[in-house]
Amino acid sequence: MLRTIDWDGKAVTIIDQSALPGQYRTLRLDTVDELIDAIRRLAVRGAPALGAAGALGVALAARRHPQDPGAVREEAERLAAARPTAANLRWGVEHGLARLSRGANAVSQAAHQVLEEDERTNRHLSQRAADVITEQCGLRPLRILTICNSGALAAVAWGTGVGAIRVLAGRGAVNEVLVCETRPLLQGARLTIWELAQLGIPHRLCIDSAGPAALARGLVDCVVVGADRITRNGDVANKIGTYSLACAAALASVPFVVVAPDETVDQTMASGAEIPIEERAPEEVRSLGGQVLTLPQTPTFNPAFDVTPISLITAVVTTSTTFRGNAAATGSAVTSLQYSPQS
Ligand code: MRU
To answer: Which of 62, 47, 49, 61 lies closest to 13, judged by CA?
Structure first.
């Protein structure tokens, strides 16, 4: 598979995730406005991929306005605001802007470095997360539940949550992956299922409300998800539906593990209460695949993400740190575990 997002020397190239799994096609984005549009309609999405998009977007802007840093900063700010919840997008933008005084080539080099480091970071992170999951569940074929897409499509390559599942599968430690469809835009059904099928990892698809039910019925050994923003105390914003899985996992004493690169950690925020939650268009709830599901003008509640407190999480594995459940009081990694694995 190509990189999810890349640079062809002049423009940003992406795998168009809005077309998968029906169609596998790439898009070439020449301007920051085209990139912003692709981000808003989730043609490129997932926190690490958005980090790369942020850095590449500043590279595009710096090439377009080589003598006008003010214009670059204006485009960069609009880019950073395109999706407010994933910390990585603004991180990528800031990473690019930090090189702006050294010229457009330095900004492009910084973006190139983000692309190069993504896969290495994710592979390392995934090994660490797989070790934590094995420590929690034992080395045996696991029934893993996940939501949304935290695979290669959510990053530049390899993935985070699904990256850890790939490592476990390589160790013979995956029985099956149960994938929540992830309404309203179906990243689980469209993207995670597509990736798992390509990887030959056994899987089943379920509707979102079946995820907590599977946990309650003892059909899941571990929940593994990615993250869009992690605050200093270890609280996690991730795709809407993650919180209900964490509640059900805690009630069932099933380990709940979050996997994300360091760039997803927002050191400026003390807790999840501060995380801005993106509210998306009513049409996403009112219709499915172009088919209207309800009365046309029905008011909706459509948050793209929810926040799971660290008290409900067994471990948040980042590139360099593992936050353990109940770390909220200290705001740092601790070694005590709140939940024990189901035998
Ligand atoms: O709205 P999306 O598809 O961008 O949401 C993505 C998620 O919630 C992912 O779980 C998260 O970005 C982690 S991806 C490694």
So the answer is: 49
Q: Out of 208, 228, 235, 266, which one is annotated catalytic?
A: 228
The verdict on whether 262 is a catalytic residue reads: no
What CATH number is attached to the domain comprising 84? 1.20.120.420
pLDDT in tens, 284-321: 999 998 899 999 999 999 999 999 999 999 999 999 99
**Helix (H/G/I), strand (E/B), else coil: 314:** coil
Q: Which of 264-268, 331-335, 336-340: highest mean pLDDT? A: 264-268
Is ligand 1 within 6 A of the CB of residue 125? no
> What whole-number percentage of the chain has pLDDT above 70?
94
Residue 264 sits in the same domain as residue 161:
yes
| Distance in Å, CA 227 to ligand 1 centroid | 7
pTM: 0.94
Average pLDDT, the chain: 94
How close is the Cα of 204 to the center of ligand 1, in Å?
A: 20
**Ligand 1 atom nearest to CA at 161:** 15
Same domain, 241 and 293: yes
> Which are the contacts of 66, defined by CB distance < 8 A and separation ≥ 6?
103, 104
Last residue within a domain, chosen from 84, 118, 152: 118
Give per-residue pLDDT as tens, 166-221: 999 999 999 999 999 999 999 999 999 999 999 999 999 999 999 999 999 999 99
Whole-number Å distance between alpha carbons of 254 and 251: 8
Residue 227 CA to residue 164 CA, distance in Å, equals 13
Atom of ligand 1 nearest to the CA of 260: 15
